[in-house]
What does this fold into?
Amino acid sequence: MSDAVAQADTRGPETRGLGARLWAYQAERFPLLKHGVLIAAFGASAVCLSALLRGGAPNLMAIAVAVLVLFGFFLQLRVADEHKDNADDTKFRPERPVPRGLVKLSELRGLAIGVGLAQIGLTVALDWRLIGPLLLVWAWMAVMTREFFAPAWLKKRPMIYMVSHMAIMPLIDLYATACDWLPAGVALHESFGLTLGAFLLLSLVNGAAIEIARKSWAPEMEREGVETYSRLWGAERAGIVVMALVLTGLALSAFINVRSGAGAVVLVGLMIVTMFAAWTAIDYAGTPAARQVKQMETGTAVFVLGNYLLLGVIPLLLSLLPA
It folds into this structure.
């Protein structure tokens, strides 16, 4: 039995208030700072890139709404995962917050519903037509939680499982970009829509890279009942897949860079973060030790964060500077 499980087994019943328990929960399962930085970059980049492509300046309220609503989406995805994985967590990971009694599923559902009401309010305040993309994300999230009504079939096909779950990323991205182009009245004409489509596809690639990197472990880290890509494919293949994804991401980001006119300096920055992430993935493939696991997770996070800042936020800021 691991130290974490032993600790969970000896811990007494929770007596803290809901606020304190939820705060402890986020520290374990949804760290606000760690997730917040990536989500803020994601939301701001989507709005800024849309503004850059249409030749305008982003509305600060659009950025704020996109970031806050996206933060809510990812929190709701975490809550959905807690419900979906509860049986396995109770059996194989009793040290996690829900199985050990830190929080109840009903309390997390209440939190997700409260966040949803706030998302509706923010969405309507910006543009009521954004309710459509909002509902689209929630609909996909709902069927994801039900494992698309075919859990056994999906479990036997891990690649289809991952892609079906990662498909929510372009939908979230669609909402974020729409925070700019929908209120601005921009039609998704061929040129604008093509570049935006590449950005939505990039969000799928980024999500897949992070997902595989965080679920690729060293042999001594593997646990019974925990499905990892390193166990499924072997560490070497998992590392190669992560490398292939970040290189695919570079191709997409280079296309977006050229279409948006961001310039060679930004493209060099995209290449640097990609090469760093690719190196960590290959290092893990060759030596799947605990240090390399952490490096690859960091590398993919740097790649994704760099992608979003260098594609939307930084080019837009540069375009606004005096010539």
User: Anything to note?
Assistant: The two ends are 64 Å apart (CA to CA).
